[in-house]
């Protein structure tokens, strides 16, 4: 069988696909992408295990990750224009019964059909705010569809057009690993003495499975987004002596550093090692215990890229997402969530030059929306999120036509007990105030 590496590095296919003109692979630089396989259609990748081409290609995929079944030939063989028309027609037939939710990092061919565009939490809130819809087609990744299912009504279906659209960061913390960590950590720290705060509060980033959100809900913990991570850590420190932060070490570290904590009190928990690779004393001295997870898209950004942008474009403003490594966040002029990045760009003056450290589809779209500015991605090599890339118009057309036919393919259902505990952690986040 052909390995994924052979499959995606096939030069002849790359050349043929490039001639067909795939926008993600070629748009920003016109010459290169992080991976030749990006010019392939996702159904070619769905046949082999792994995340497929893009920034998460080499990340380890858990055996339990959902796999997508074969897509009917009609959709694979359709032209781009046919797919577009089928989507438009099916959407018109479905009317307000179905809403399409499009994540900021999706390709433009999906975003043009979206009823709501936003980050994961904004889209889950959109689902919650539309009780009239029978179904939501979530053009994002698996954990986002789970959150939408948790927040939407029990009769409302949340559908992920391609089940292989997971998130490599979310997959870096499984519920079994988190429960093992909690057992070891609470044993090492011991119980709180009378009058003391809790020894440790679990905090999970939105980019985690429903099972981990539920774990936090059950254990006095909370969820955060990249917009409210500081408020959430303040909430946690009002209740606990320390925090264990899942799964993105960079968001945890950057937020705690901005609050004045030094890296000496932020040990890394490596899930395959006893005590996460730490001593009991290191854990006792810790304020934020960071899970060893990361986003493969944002970890590509480097200080060298920032130095080059400043050398090439004197006066450039550099803004990055807090999933980037700490050195990158420190070298940038500003760091914040997707919402922060959008607001910074909206507040810029004509002629300003802005280098952005986040996902390429979003950066390209911001440049399209703001022709009066020069906006470019810090990473000169185009490399989108592998798993977002799996949502192709062919899957959206198939999903919508299935809904028209009365079927609900790829429905994401979160177990009722898990949903209840997750909701607790999400509600704590909504109630947390700066
Ligand atoms: S951009 Fe990073 S965090 Fe977001 S879905 Fe992709 S891998 Fe996950």
From TrEMBL:
<keyword id="KW-0411">Iron-sulfur</keyword>
<dbReference type="GO" id="GO:0005829">
    <property type="term" value="C:cytosol"/>
</dbReference>
<dbReference type="Pfam" id="PF02445">
    <property type="entry name" value="NadA"/>
</dbReference>
<feature type="binding site">
    <location>
        <position position="295"/>
    </location>
    <ligand>
        <name>[4Fe-4S] cluster</name>
    </ligand>
</feature>
<dbReference type="InterPro" id="IPR036094">
    <property type="entry name" value="NadA_sf"/>
</dbReference>
<feature type="binding site">
    <location>
        <position position="120"/>
    </location>
    <ligand>
        <name>iminosuccinate</name>
    </ligand>
</feature>
<feature type="binding site">
    <location>
        <position position="385"/>
    </location>
    <ligand>
        <name>[4Fe-4S] cluster</name>
    </ligand>
</feature>
<keyword id="KW-0004">4Fe-4S</keyword>
<dbReference type="InterPro" id="IPR003473">
    <property type="entry name" value="NadA"/>
</dbReference>
<feature type="binding site">
    <location>
        <position position="167"/>
    </location>
    <ligand>
        <name>[4Fe-4S] cluster</name>
    </ligand>
</feature>
<comment type="similarity">
    <text>Belongs to the quinolinate synthase family. Type 3 subfamily.</text>
</comment>
<protein>
    <recommendedName>
        <fullName>Quinolinate synthase</fullName>
        <ecNumber>2.5.1.72</ecNumber>
    </recommendedName>
</protein>
<keyword id="KW-0963">Cytoplasm</keyword>
<feature type="binding site">
    <location>
        <begin position="321"/>
        <end position="323"/>
    </location>
    <ligand>
        <name>iminosuccinate</name>
    </ligand>
</feature>
<comment type="function">
    <text>Catalyzes the condensation of iminoaspartate with dihydroxyacetone phosphate to form quinolinate.</text>
</comment>
<dbReference type="GO" id="GO:0034628">
    <property type="term" value="P:'de novo' NAD+ biosynthetic process from L-aspartate"/>
</dbReference>
<dbReference type="InterPro" id="IPR023515">
    <property type="entry name" value="Quinolinate_synth_A_type3"/>
</dbReference>
<feature type="binding site">
    <location>
        <position position="226"/>
    </location>
    <ligand>
        <name>iminosuccinate</name>
    </ligand>
</feature>
<feature type="binding site">
    <location>
        <position position="338"/>
    </location>
    <ligand>
        <name>iminosuccinate</name>
    </ligand>
</feature>
<feature type="binding site">
    <location>
        <position position="103"/>
    </location>
    <ligand>
        <name>iminosuccinate</name>
    </ligand>
</feature>
<feature type="binding site">
    <location>
        <begin position="205"/>
        <end position="207"/>
    </location>
    <ligand>
        <name>iminosuccinate</name>
    </ligand>
</feature>
<dbReference type="GO" id="GO:0051539">
    <property type="term" value="F:4 iron, 4 sulfur cluster binding"/>
</dbReference>
<keyword id="KW-0479">Metal-binding</keyword>
<keyword id="KW-0808">Transferase</keyword>
<keyword id="KW-0662">Pyridine nucleotide biosynthesis</keyword>
<comment type="pathway">
    <text>Cofactor biosynthesis; NAD(+) biosynthesis; quinolinate from iminoaspartate: step 1/1.</text>
</comment>
<dbReference type="GO" id="GO:0046872">
    <property type="term" value="F:metal ion binding"/>
</dbReference>
<keyword id="KW-0408">Iron</keyword>
<dbReference type="GO" id="GO:0008987">
    <property type="term" value="F:quinolinate synthetase A activity"/>
</dbReference>
